[in-house]
Design goal:
- 34% of the residues lie in helices and 24% in strands.
- It is α+β, with helices and mostly antiparallel strands.
- Strand 15 and strand 16 form a beta hairpin.
- The protein starts with 25 loop residues before the first helix and ends with a strand.
- The N terminus is likely disordered.
């Protein structure tokens, strides 16, 4: 390897060695030096927080701090360039709006403008002190020059050395005032008065805005066109002081001009029917805005915004972005994501239909769709090999978005689509990339031909990134949920085989939080001559609880099969649980059924008491003798209680998830359950089980798992 490049000498004053702690703004001077050296447009310095893995913005320059407000504090694990630069100890380069949209959708959705960005760590070999970012206008090449890389790297290394010295000398660095824009030259110089007279004579409006969008100057023509006194404009933002400019799209154009440093224009309707044209000329100190009357509105149909028109995708506001992002975080399963994209994202970007695609086993898989009159138009793609040449497979395979402004454009590239029209005339096909890999494709369809300018493509690509993150979580959730249900089904009995003279029904519902798998269990053991029934609840609702539950259920079956009495079964199960060393406890209710004698012998280990509905409809809570929870005391004993079980009687065994919920007294819950059992006890047993679960308030909220086992003594013959 060759020798490292020599440091590039700065062209403006560098902070001196004694700047730290001397009162001079070290960070501001270092940032100004870097920006001047590489001709950057804006930038900022972050410092590491003292007690948490967070970068905190210390100083910015070139643009209002409000533009970077969402990133005032950045966690080191965040998908943000400065955080990535610190994590990987390298320069991170973003070459433009499409690159930003693909890699950092959260930033691109908020700032969908053409600009380039470099982020670097401020670190020595041993310690990270912070990070720096600088940006260039959209006209910057898509890759940095060697000189820019060398200059930025050397400047950050020098800054790190100074911060290391400050730390060694116990000097505290704090945030510094942001760097002001350079003053406008020419103020107070000869010719200024004549220049003002010249501007006043111009036949069009002319206004000057500072970096914060405040009006610093407006000629008489500008005030007349806007319909506001010049004195009322000065010092205000036009979208605040001019009521009919109070629309996010107009502020967005100002932001776009400043960040991209490109000339930007828009038209606006001044009530009742005058269209005005605004053209913004940006510089590093602010904007000069030219205001003229637009040509007749009738000549501009299709080019002017209407009050009732859907907002352009590039004009999605920060509040809309936060709303969309918040909605997507609430999505749990894949169908939730599809529904939220249909309800929230598609309307925001003017789309009328969507398809969500994924892949499995080398084939295309339709995850969901909305807005298609004929579902078969979409569903025929399900199972299509990924090698097939279609827009969806191409985007899924390459990770590159595709935009088709018309049907003719789509059919020119994919002639096969002529045979299967879907009724739409424009498409945005977005790759859904999360954690660096494609997880699916989102197809947004438009009823009319739709142009996709560069900034709109960037916003759509960014939204695809947000959707991808939600879809990745949803796919993982659905996979875990499927695994949980499969495991739960394997651990619980597939069917109940009651002894002659006994009818049985059972229900199990997982908690609504967690993995939807739990430690509640029930079983019916058809041994001869007497059968046994058991219900129990292991702490928690996770895989550990479920696994332990399966072991306990197996143990109870084994101890029952070898002929142990109810109290012995409980003692043996208790010792088994202690021997497992799982540090989990379990409640349990075990009974030996003798339908011929019309009785049941029960043993209880800290479990809720069962309910008995007598043939006459009266219900009582069985106050059984019992012992402590299983898994606490190896020497615990579990006395038994004999209960009469006359023909027509119903025993209701349940876990505490059926009766316990926050804010509800357990005694009141038992009374309510008893009333349900009394009123509905003559129903067929399966319907009765559904009734108890459906009408229990605790079971509806399901903060815990719910298991119910019902046993009915049948009359002879």
């Amino acid at each position: 390897m060759g020798a490292p490049p020599a440091p590039v000498e700065p062209t403006v004053e560098e902070p001196a060695a004694d700047d730290v702690g001397s009162g001079r703004p070290l960070l501001s001077l270092a940032l100004a030096s870097m920006m001047e050296e590489v001709q950057a447009h804006s930038g900022g310095v972050y410092l590491m927080a003292a007690d948490e893995p967070v970068l905190e913005m210390a100083v910015t320059a070139g643009l209002p701090r409000a533009f970077a407000a969402p990133w005032e504090r950045v966690g080191l694990s965040a998908p943000i360039p400065v955080a990535e630069a610190v994590r990987e100890r390298r320069l991170v380069w973003v070459g433009g709006e499409e690159d930003m949209a693909r890699r950092y959708p959260r930033i691109a959705v908020v700032l969908p403008y053409p600009f380039a960005l470099a982020a670097l760590p401020v670190a020595t070999a041993d310690t990270v002190y912070g990070a720096v970012y600088v940006t260039w206008p959209g006209s910057h090449p898509t890759v940095p020059s060697d000189r820019e890389r060398q200059a930025l790297t050397a400047a950050c290394e020098r800054l790190a050395v100074r911060l290391e010295r400050a730390a060694r000398e116990n000097r505290t660095l704090r945030a510094e005032p942001d760097l002001p824009a350079a003053p406008v030259s020419g103020a107070g110089t000869p010719g200024t008065v004549e220049a003002a007279r010249m501007v006043a004579r111009l036949p069009y409006g002319l206004a000057s805005l500072d970096l914060h969008g405040r009006v610093a100057f407006a000629n008489a023509a500008a005030a007349e066109l806007l319909g506001v006194q010049a004195g009322e404009l000065l010092g205000t933002q036009p979208w605040v002081s001019v009521p009919w400019l109070n629309d996010p799209m107009y502020e967005d154009r100002y932001r776009a001009a400043l960040i991209s440093q490109h000339v930007t224009s828009f038209v606006a309707l001044k009530p009742p029917g005058d269209w005005l044209s605004f053209r913004m000329y940006p510089s590093k100190t602010g904007l000069t805005t030219r205001i003229t009357r637009a040509r007749a509105a009738a000549e501009m149909v299709g080019t002017l915004p209407r009050a009732d028109a859907a907002a352009s995708p590039r004009l999605v506001t920060i509040s809309q972005v936060l709303s969309l992002a918040g909605a997507l975080t609430e999505a749990v399963g894949v169908q939730d994501v599809v529904q939220l994209v249909a309800d929230e994202v598609a309307p925001a970007v003017g789309s009328q239909a969507l398809v969500m695609l994924g892949s499995r086993g080398g084939r295309l898989h339709v995850l969901g769709h909305r807005g298609y009159d004929d579902p078969q138009v979409v569903e025929r793609f399900d199972g299509l090999p990924l090698a097939e040449r279609t827009p969806g497979t191409h985007v899924l395979n390459t990770g590159v978005p595709a935009f088709f402004e018309s049907r003719q454009q789509l059919e020119r590239l994919y002639p096969g689509r002529r045979d299967s029209p879907d009724g739409f005339a424009g498409w945005a096909i977005l790759p859904l990339i999360a954690s660096g890999r494609p997880v699916g494709t989102c197809v947004l369809a438009y009823a009319e031909p739709h142009a996709f300018p560069a900034d709109e493509r960037a916003v759509l690509t960014s939204l695809g990134g947000l959707i991808a993150q939600a879809l990745e979580r949803a796919l993982l959730y659905d996979a875990k949920n499927q695994l949980a249900h499969g495991l739960q089904a394997a651990l619980l009995p597939h069917s109940l085989t009651p002894p002659p003279g006994i009818e049985a029904a059972a229900r199990y519902l997982p908690a609504m939080h967690g993995m939807e798998i739990g430690g509640d269990f029930y079983d019916l053991v058809p041994t001869r001559p007497l059968a046994a029934a058991v219900i129990g609840d292991v702490q928690g609702h996770n895989v550990t609880a479920a696994g332990l539950m399966g072991q306990i259920r197996t143990g109870v079956r084994a101890f029952t099969t070898v002929g142990q009495a109810p109290e012995e079964v409980m003692r043996s199960t208790n010792r088994l649980l202690i021997d497992f060393g799982a540090d989990l406890f379990a409640s349990c209710l075990y009974l030996r059924l003798d339908p011929e004698q019309g009785r049941a012998v029960m043993a209880r280990a800290g479990h809720p008491p069962p309910l008995l509905r007598r043939p006459d409809g009266r219900v009582r809570v069985l106050d059984l003798a019992g012992g402590p929870l299983l898994g606490i005391d190896a020497e615990a004993t579990y006395p038994t209680t004999e209960v009469s079980l006359a023909p027509g009687s119903v025993l209701a065994l349940y876990t505490d998830g059926l009766v316990e919920s926050p804010g509800v007294d357990i005694e009141d819950a038992l009374v309510g359950l008893g009333e349900l059992l009394a009123e509905n006890g003559d129903q067929p047993l399966d319907r009765l089980a559904d009734t108890l679960v459906r009408h229990s308030a605790a079971a509806q909220e399901r903060v815990d798992d719910v298991a119910v086992l019902l046993l009915r003594a049948q009359p002879d013959g």
